[in-house]
Structures are given as C-alpha cells and as structure tokens.
Amino acid sequence: MYDRLSIEKREELLLLLTAEQRDFLMKELKRGRRTIFENVMRDEKISAIKSIDTELEEDELLVIDWMIIDFADYGLGNLAGQCACGRKLRYQFTVEHQQTGKIIQYGKDHLSVFLNIDVKDINGVINELDRFDHELDELLWKVKHGEYGYEVYEKIQDKTVVSPKIVKHIEVNVPLLDRQMNLLKKYLEKQLEALLEEQREIQIKLELEEQQQRNEKIEKLIQEKKKIEDMLEDERKARSELEKKRKQQEKEKVLLEKMEQDARLKATIELVRQGAKIDEIAYSLVMNGVNSAVEISWIIVKNFDVDKRISIGDFGRPYIYFDILIALSKQVNNGYLLKDEASDGEDCIFYVNPEPVQGNSKDSEEIQQEFSLF
User: Is 37 a member of any domain?
Assistant: First the structure.
C-alpha cells in the first residue's frame, strides 16, 4: 500500500512536516538505527579492526572505539554513494572513531573487511534498516494523505494500557503505524469483552430493577461493539478493494512493461540478427533495457544460433552465461556499463553508464577469473 520513497522524495515530504513532527520522526529513526548498529557491533563479536583504504593510528585500532553512525540506500541502479576506496556505491555506511572523531565511508564489502565479519551479516543489517525506512515512508504517506488513525485510541476507556510510544505519536501529532493501530484495536476488543463480563457478574447480584438498568447499559455496549465491528468490517472491505485495485494496477503495469520490453527486444533482434557477435548482441540488449545477464543468456539461446546447452547446476543457466558476463564486464571496464551491487552468484545486473568514462581494460582471462566464484 505504501510505495517505497527515494531519498530525495523522502526529504521533500519531511519538509512538509512541522518542526516538532520532523524532529520526532528523525529522532525515532536515528534511535532505531543506532540500536541496530550497536547490536551488530556487539552481537557479531567483532574482535579486531582491519585497516582498509584509510591509514589508522595505533590508538584507532581498538574495536570498542568504533561505531557505525549512518547508512544511506540510494536505490536500485543509483550509485550516488562513495566508498573510501573511491568506488561508487548504492549502499553507503559511515563509521566514526568515538575518541578521535575520524569518519570513514564504506560500501558493504569493505565494511565487512573493516569489521572482520561476513558480508551476509552486513546484508542482515541492511534488511533491518530497510524496515525502519519503510515505517518512515508509511508515516510520511499518512501525513500527506491526512490519515492519522487516532479514532480507535479515543474509544479506549482505560488508556493506561496504551504504550507510551503510541501516546507520544498522538502528542506530537504524528500518525500511528498500521501495527500500532492493530494493537489499539486489540486493546479495545479486550476492554469491551472485560466490560461485558463485568456487567454479566453484576447482573446476577442485582435486584430485578437494577438488573433491568444494567441490561440497558449492556445493550448500549453491544450496539457500540456492533458499530465498531461494522467499522472494522467496512475498513477490511475497503482495504481488500484497495488491495485488489493495487494488484490490478501492478498487473497492468507489468503487462505494459513486458510489451515495451518485447518491442525493444524485437527491434534489437532485427538489428543484430545479420552477422552479429554474442558480445554485440549482449551489449545491445543492455542498451535496450534488459539488465539481467541470465535473461540476456536465455534470449540469445532462444533466438540465435549459439550453444544451446543448459547447466545442470542449481541455477540451471545456459552455458553461454559466463561468455555474457565476460562480454558485459569488458563494457564495464571500458566505462560504458555499470554493474549493480545487488549482483550475486545467481545473477549479475548491468546498467548503461549515464556518464561513460574510459576504463581500464582487462583481458578475457582476468575477467574469467573474477567470475570463477559465480
């Protein structure tokens, strides 16, 4: 329901908030991130700092004095960050020495070397940070659309059971998260059930006249509960309809993108069919919006006279997959393409370099060695 926001869009929406709202959200975000950073420094049992890209003084080699203080995800295909080694990044971490104040910025690979932990642990940190960013996006969306979700809170009679974090949201006029609203609904249901049970016990002990009065109150409570149930059911139906609409829109979007991609692919095939080499075909497909090396391999196998064999390994990729990696990596080294950091052993993603620069050439043997791990 809530679209993921780019850094620029998120900062734009933050400017629409009051100073109090913005201060609260940023403090909560920083507090949550700091907890994640402290946990990884503690739980991963980091025992030594490895100097990489930046020379460290002797008193800067103690693990306890270093802390991850910031993280930025610039989005898929966006390399706006920069590692201390000079490499452009999608994911950028900032670490600080708590005594000297030295600050270093790393990508996830060099950060794992610096902290002497596995890259998969860094990926776990990114996933945790992504959850906080997603909740921030949810709150910004709700502020923009004026959906604060306070109505259920107002119906709760005993507000002492409500979490201070939820109360703080209301005090600073910040919307409630969906998970907080669900918790409030459970509080409301429990209090209604408890109140009904109390009325039933009192009803047994009272005289007929008092019992009648209690019955009237119970009836009123039942009606209120029915209203709440109807409200929740209406909300559920509305949410279901909204979800159906969203899925339909996504389906239409995927279909449109498929049609556009098929059109580009057809044009590419027609242009390169006569005497084209695999290198030229692969590069042409990237230029026309096909970014996955696995997908490019399948397209070439299905449409051109090449080796049709398929690997019997776990991934089941065409044999020519490594030839495609070598061909596209040459274009990366020549400065015409970029390889996304999300690339892994299963697939590699390539994009057209918006600012092509002349790179350092590598021969086929060196590139083949680089991809031996895949």
Answer: yes
pLDDT in tens, 27-49: 777 676 776 777 666 655 566 67
Same domain, 47 and 130: yes
**Model pLDDT, residue 94:** 86
Burial grade of 70 (CB within 10 A; 0-12, 13-18, 19 or more): middle
Count CB atoms within 10 A of the CB of residue 180.
Answer: 19
Each residue's pLDDT tens digit, 158-188: 888 888 888 888 888 888 888 888 888 888 8
Residue after which a domain boundary falls, among 201, 228, 246: 246
3-state secondary structure of 232: helix
Q: Would you place residue 292 in the very low, low, confident or very high pLDDT band (cuts 50, 70, 90)? A: very high
pLDDT exceeds 90 at position 211 = no
- Specify the amino acid at residue 147: E
Per the structure, how many domains does the chain have?
3
> Does 286 lie in the same domain as 225?
no
Judged by DSSP in three states, 99 sits in: coil
User: Does one domain contain both 135 and 179?
Assistant: no
Nearest alpha carbon to residue 122 among 136, 105, 110: 110
Sheet order of strands, 91-97 included? 66-73, 91-97, 103-106
CB atoms closer than 10 angstroms to residue 224: 13
CB environment 183-208: b (16+ within 10 A), e (fewer): bbbebbeebbeebeeebeeebeeeee
Strand partners, 95: 68, 104
Radius of gyration of the chain (CA): 29
Look at the alpha carbons of 127, 130, 135, 141 in this order and tell me if their dihedral is positive or negative. Answer: negative
